[in-house]
Amino acid sequence: MCGIAGFWKNDQNDIHAFRDILKDMSAQLYHRGPDGYGFHVDERAGLGMGHARLSIIDLETGEQPLLSHDKEQVLTVNGEFYDYKRIRTALRLEGFQFACKSDSEIALPLYKKYGLDFVEHLRGEFAISLYDQSRQRLVLVRDRFGIKPLFYHINKGNVYYGSEIKALLAHPDVPSSFDNRSILHQLMHTTAPGTSLFKDIYAVKPGHMLILERHGNQLDVKEHCYWDMDFPEKDEREHKSEAHYIQSVREELSEAVFHRLEADVPVGCYLSGGIDSCSMLGLASGMQQSPVKAFTISFDHKAYDESAIAKEMADRVGADQEQISLKADDLYGESYIKTLWHAERAFYNTLGVAKYKMSQRVNECGYRVVVTGEGSDELFGGYPAFKRDMLLHGHEGASAEELESYRKLMDESNKLFKGAILAENQVSHPALEEVCGFTPSWIQPWMQTLDIASPLLHDDILEDLRGYDPIQEIATSFDTRQLNNRHVLDKAQYTWIKTMLECQILNWGGDRVDMANSMESRPAFLDHHVAEAAKKIPPHMRIKGNVEKWVLREAMKNVLPETLYKREKFAFMAPPGHTENKKKAALDLLLDSYLNEDKVKEIGIFDPKRLSSFIRTYKADTDPVSLVRKDALINHLLGLHILHDLFVSKAASIIA
């Protein structure tokens, strides 16, 4: 697990500064790779490739960049390739040679053998840059779900890339300014696939590769989707027994966890009170000889705290549990700012800050790797919004009375989160109705947030955005071939996977806050073999009656405490700022520093009067649903101003 950065230039005006610039870019990724830097510079080709290393596999000889045996290809990798020993052995038998024991090196002979199809033979979470001198080709690749980040900027035939945007901004030719459309998306929390907050800086999309080839002075750029979460069409669905799907999930998930325990350093587990992380711990405990180290977050608000259930699970399997207790001072202040610097986007809840603090503790305990539960809800139908869509549009065989009772139970158990995770009333959008046949419930609360967020923008930005519809932008980004003739639940899961999984769960809920403290997280559920098994599960088994993730529950039944096996999905969130006076006071300090009138006028994103009025109404509000929504928006407003200070006003060095 590392960080990569580089450039491929057509104009070579700064050729003598190549190495120094590359060092500056890589230095911005020190937190991703504190164990050393590696560089490859080819001045004739205008190429610079940098690597910041976090040593996890092949501690002695795994330095990058890696060169092919004939020196024609150069490779840098951020991430892990699993099952690499078997693949390496097979390639050796075919005559390929290896210079080290790193898992990353298998990509080079696979590319030699399969060309651009090499990525289909890789299993894991990764971001790759591969330069092929013989073809004058640079290939940027991102794993199937976008677990590992990778950004790029192209200007006048010059290419710049990096694991994080801050690495690109360290190059003097890459501009640093916000994109007005992205500002709007940040306020509604849902970004369009392939975009970033920054103007002309893009993300390589999950499951995609960017193929860049030079033909003289011309740069040819192609985007290729090599994998997608293609749920089977209705008339192509399997019709097998419940036992078949339960056993399939057991086998694939067990293998995925087994591979993710492979490391030359100790491997721990994140542990909350949910089925997902408890399943990871249960499986890992069966595979490891010594007690597994488990890390749990505890909040100082009973309604949001799951540590008691987590402890029950840890005790059940004899894990060595480390509990991190977090209060207002931990969730705001300096840690809040640092989390934004690492995430490079705004967040709606301080759960990201909590996870930043947890990874900090993991690092202090001497661990560099943990297995995590992200991706389970996406694959197995776990989120309340998915259940709502199923109950409204997709349930077969249940009476109207049963469905109504299910909806009431779900609304009651999720009342804490109405306004952010669930909308209190149904809203729709014609663009989503056109591509999905309905408006997925997961996006509805953010559509309602957008209604109160847009008017807060400065008039100049509103004028620039005239005629732009962010919901339509999101709707048209979906591949309709993956939506046509699919079940309602398939559509809800697919649209979430293409948006919120990457921009939220795997960003400020995953890689960015884990790698902030040089700690690699491995989400075993997002193994593509597990995903292939999950997508085949019929919708009425993913959510059976009122039970979400039914097949997963049954598959993991014997490793889970009974309390958890029977428990309805409960969203994992930090207590919002309005829930307690100490948090209100800590949040007020940030608001006074970053959203004061002078700052608002200076930055020019928001209208000072309208923003001031909104903050007053937020502080005076007493309606719980309204407060949840406004608290989410306050975090986005605050986040944009802090990010502007850090990256546009060039104060990022205070973090680095």
TrEMBL record:
GO MF annotation: an example: ATP binding
EC number of the protein: 6.3.5.4
Residue(s) at site: Important for beta-aspartyl-AMP intermediate formation: E374
PROSITE patterns per UniProt: GATASE_TYPE_2
Keyword Electron transport: no
Residues forming the catalytic site: C2
Highest taxon of the lineage: Bacteria
Residue stretches making up the Glutamine amidotransferase type-2 domain: 2-215
Gene3D superfamilies, per the entry: Glutamine Phosphoribosylpyrophosphate, subunit 1, domain 1, HUPs
Residues reported to bind L-glutamine: D103
Annotated catalysed reactions: L-aspartate + L-glutamine + ATP + H2O = L-asparagine + L-glutamate + AMP + diphosphate + H(+)
One Gene Ontology CC term in the entry: cytosol
Pathway(s) it belongs to: Amino-acid biosynthesis; L-asparagine biosynthesis; L-asparagine from L-aspartate (L-Gln route): step 1/1
Keywords: Amino-acid biosynthesis, Asparagine biosynthesis, ATP-binding, Glutamine amidotransferase, Ligase, Nucleotide-binding
Similarity section: Belongs to the asparagine synthetase family.
Protein name: asparagine synthase (glutamine-hydrolyzing)
